[in-house]
Input
Amino acid sequence: MTKIISSGIPHYIIRDTQSFQLVAMIDGAAANAQFINHLQVLGHQRRLLAEISQKIAALPPMATPEQRAALETEQNQLNALVTTNLQFMTKHYGYSVNRNYVLTPLNSALLLKGTDDKGQPIEDSSKATLVAELRTSEAYDELQSLRNKAVELAADPAKADELEATKTKLKDEFDFDLNKHYILEVRKGALYATVVD
Output
């Protein structure tokens, strides 16, 4: 699933004045999607755990033992899930809650979603059509930046000309149309972690 570093990939990067070192390469669209999904699930579980801890701390003195026990049982079950997921992330990705991470997409694909019988977009990437291949992290960042800019400009009627220019650039550089539905699939990612002193 992960490979330790190959040549041509920077071993260190700086983002927002923080230094990061390369810890793993994640090859394949499925492996990258799995990593991103695990990260999101773990983040959600940790937020829920913090909320339950706050609820327990905020219990009034007159709370019944059953109320406290129910919250503590929920806390213990969620804590076990978080521990299991952390162990998985540590084993497969070298993940630690004490570090910040950056996943840099090195090779990505922009896929036009397929549609069902009713013309609704389908999330299945196997039914999508390749529109553009983004062979560098810079191309990925440029696409994301242009998409975000277009969304911001669309909210301001006074910036219609700038929006049209951005839409044209998206179409020319990435064959991207704001009115269509896409999947941005990371096929190869470099996982960086904050440098530990």
Remarks:
- The beta strands are 2-3, 12-15, 18-27, 101-112, 129-134, 182-194.
- Residues 42 and 83 are 10 Å apart (CA to CA).
- Confidence is low (pLDDT under 50) at residues 1-6.
- The radius of gyration is 22 Å.
